[in-house]
C-alpha cells in the first residue's frame, strides 16, 4: 500500500488529466496487427498502426522467429555487453549496414533506447546540439541526458537553423544537428538537403532519426536516400517497429563510431537485449524490404496514401503538411477530436485521437497511418465514416 497522501496526490493529478481530456484510452488488440484487426472484440479497419508495409504478421517473419527460437532458445540471458549476444546478431548488424549503406551498425533493444543512449554518448559538456522543435520525445530525452548545450530551431526551417549555427559557431567543441527524417505527427519530411549543406558549411555532425521514413521513402531505405544525402549523414538512426513490422532500434555509421557507441551508450550497455527470435524476424524483414517484393509493397502503400489523402481533402478535412503515409486530420479541439475518434470506432474504423501534450493545444488531430495491405473497400469505409461524423460534428 502506498502512503495515503501519495494516493491522494496522484489521484488528483489523474483527475485533472481526465477533465482536460488528456488521458490515453488504450484499446485491446485481440488478433494479429494488420490493416484489419479485432480490437476490443470487434473487427475494424486499422488506421492507427505504424505497420506501413503490412509485415507485422507476415508468415516469413514468424517462421524465422520460430526457427531461431528452436536453435537459440528464447531469452538472451543477460545484457549483451555481459553475456554476449547470439551469432545471428552479427548477421543482422551486417544487413543493417547494407540497408543503411554504412560501414557498420548496431542494434538496440528499442528505437527509444537508441536516442536515449547514443546522444549522451556522442556529445558532452562543451558541445552544442541544434534540434528541430518538433523532434520525437526520445530525441528530447536524449538531449536532456547529455551535458551539451541545447538550441532549438524552428520546425523544418533551414534559415532559422543557419541563424542558430552562426550564433554557436566557434563557441563549442562540437556541433550536432539532430532531426527526425519524417515527423510523426504531421507526416512531413525534414529538408535534409538544406540541413546537410549547412552541416558541411559549419562543420557540424548530422544525426537523422528515420523511424517513419524507413520502408516508406527512398525505395525503402529512408529519407536520406530519398533526398540523396546518405553520404552526408553521420548517424543513421532507425527502428524495426514501424514499416519493418518487428521490434528494436538501430544505428548505422563508420566502424570506429559504432564501436565507440557500443562502449559508451548506457541504454545498450545496461539493457537486456531482445530475444534472438526477434533478431531473426528483423533480419527477414530487412531482406523483404530490400527486395523487389518490398518495392511493390511500397508502391501499394503510396497508392493507398494518395487515394486516402485525396478523399479526406475532398470531404473538406485539413490534412496539414503531410508528405507521407502519415495523414493527419487536424481538428484543433480536444473534445471534438475525441468524439470523432469514438464515432469512427463505432463505425468499425480504429483511429487514435492525438491531443496535448502529444501535440500543441489548438492542433489536436487524428493521426491516420495508411497500410500497404488496405483494400479500396477498407479506405472507402473509413472515408464514409469520416464524412458522416465530420459533418455531424460540424468539423467539415
Task: Tell me briefly what this model is.
The protein is of the alpha/beta class. Helix content is 44%, strand content 15%. Keywords: Acyltransferase, Ligase, Pyridoxal phosphate, Transferase.
Your description of this structure?
A seven-stranded mixed beta sheet has the order 3-9-8-7-6-4-5, sandwiched between helices. It has a three-stranded mixed beta sheet with strand order 1-2-11. A three-stranded antiparallel beta sheet has the order 10-13-12. It has helices at residues 4-20, 59-72, 80-83, 88-100, 111-122, 137-145, 158-168, 192-201, 223-226, 255-264, 266-269, 276-289, 292-315, 334-346, 376-392; strands spanning 36-39, 42-46, 104-108, 128-132, 149-153, 175-180, 205-209, 235-239, 249-253, 326-330, 349-350, 353-354, 365-369. The chain is globular. With 396 residues, it is of the alpha/beta class. The model has no long low-confidence stretch (mean pLDDT 96). Strand 1 (36-39) and strand 2 form a beta hairpin. It folds into two domains: 22-52 and 292-392, Aspartate Aminotransferase, domain 1; 59-289, Type I PLP-dependent aspartate aminotransferase-like (Major domain) (Aspartate Aminotransferase, domain 2).
Please give a handful of descriptors for the protein shown.
396 residues, Aspartate Aminotransferase, domain 2, three-stranded mixed sheet, 15 helices
Domain unit count: 2
How many strand units?
Answer: 13
Question: What structural class should be given to the helix and strand makeup?
Answer: alpha/beta
Arrangement of strands in the largest sheet: 3-9-8-7-6-4-5
What is the CATH homologous superfamily assignment of the largest domain? Answer: Type I PLP-dependent aspartate aminotransferase-like (Major domain)
- CATH C-level class of the largest domain is Alpha Beta
Give the low-pLDDT segments: none
Q: Summarize the amount of helix as a percent range.
A: 40-55%
Radius of gyration: 22 Å
Number of helices: 15
In this structure, how is the largest beta sheet organized?
7 strands, mixed
> Can you give the mean pLDDT?
96
Q: Determine the CATH topology of the largest domain.
A: Aspartate Aminotransferase, domain 2
Gap between N and C termini: 49 Å
CATH architecture of the largest domain: 3-Layer(aba) Sandwich
3D shape: globular
Give the topology string: H per helix, E per strand. HEEHHHEHEHEHEHEHEEHHHHEHEEEH
Tell me the strand percentage band. Answer: 5-15%
Amino acid at each position: 500500500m502506498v502512503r495515503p497522501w501519495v494516493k491522494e496526490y496522484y489521484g488528483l493529478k489523474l483527475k485533472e488529466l481526465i477533465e482536460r481530456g488528456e488521458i490515453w484510452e488504450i484499446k485491446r488488440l485481440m488478433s494479429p496487427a494488420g490493416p484489419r484487426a479485432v480490437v476490443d472484440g470487434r473487427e475494424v479497419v486499422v488506421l492507427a498502426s505504424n505497420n506501413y508495409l503490412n509485415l507485422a504478421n507476415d508468415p516469413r517473419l514468424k517462421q524465422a522467429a520460430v526457427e531461431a527460437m528452436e536453435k537459440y532458445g528464447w531469452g538472451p540471458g543477460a545484457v549483451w555487453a555481459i553475456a554476449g549476444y547470439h551469432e545471428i546478431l552479427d548477421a543482422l548488424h551486417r544487413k543493417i549496414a547494407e540497408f543503411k549503406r554504412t560501414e557498420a551498425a548496431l542494434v538496440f533493444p528499442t528505437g527509444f533506447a537508441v536516442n536515449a543512449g547514443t546522444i549522451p554518448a556522442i556529445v558532452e559538456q562543451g558541445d552544442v546540439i541544434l534540434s528541430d522543435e518538433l523532434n520525437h520525445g526520445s530525441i528530447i530525452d536524449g538531449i536532456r541526458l547529455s551535458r551539451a548545450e541545447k538550441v532549438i530551431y524552428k520546425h523544418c526551417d533551414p534559415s532559422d537553423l543557419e541563424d542558430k549555427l552562426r550564433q554557436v559557431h566557434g563557441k563549442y567543441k562540437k556541433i550536432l544537428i539532430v532531426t527526425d527524417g519524417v515527423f510523426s505527427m504531421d507526416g512531413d519530411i525534414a529538408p535534409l538537403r538544406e540541413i546537410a549543406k549547412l552541416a558541411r558549411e559549419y562543420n557540424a555532425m548530422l544525426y537523422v532519426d528515420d523511424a517513419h521514413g524507413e520502408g516508406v521513402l527512398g525505395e525503402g531505405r529512408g529519407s536520406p536516400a530519398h533526398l540523396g544525402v546518405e553520404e552526408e549523414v553521420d548517424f543513421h538512426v532507425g527502428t524495426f517497429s514501424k514499416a519493418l513490422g518487428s521490434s528494436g532500434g538501430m544505428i548505422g555509421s563508420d566502424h570506429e563510431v559504432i564501436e565507440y557507441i557500443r562502449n559508451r551508450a548506457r541504454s545498450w550497455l545496461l539493457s537486456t537485449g531482445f530475444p534472438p527470435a526477434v533478431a531473426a524476424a528483423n533480419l527477414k524483414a530487412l531482406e523483404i524490404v530490400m527486395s523487389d517484393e518490398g518495392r511493390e509493397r511500397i508502391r501499394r502503400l503510396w497508392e493507398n496514401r494518395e487515394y486516402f489523402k485525396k478523399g479526406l481533402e475532398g470531404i473538406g478535412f485539413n490534412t496539414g503538411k503531410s508528405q507521407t503515409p502519415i495523414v493527419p486530420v487536424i481538428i484543433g479541439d480536444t473534445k471534438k477530436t475525441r468524439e470523432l475518434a469514438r464515432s469512427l470506432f463505432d463505425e468499425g474504423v480504429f483511429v487514435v485521437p492525438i491531443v496535448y501534450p502529444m501535440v500543441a493545444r489548438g492542433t489536436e488531430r487524428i493521426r491516420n497511418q495508411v497500410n500497404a495491405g488496405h483494400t479500396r473497400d477498407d479506405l472507402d469505409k473509413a472515408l464514409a465514416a469520416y464524412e458522416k461524423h465530420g459533418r455531424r460534428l460540424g468539423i467539415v
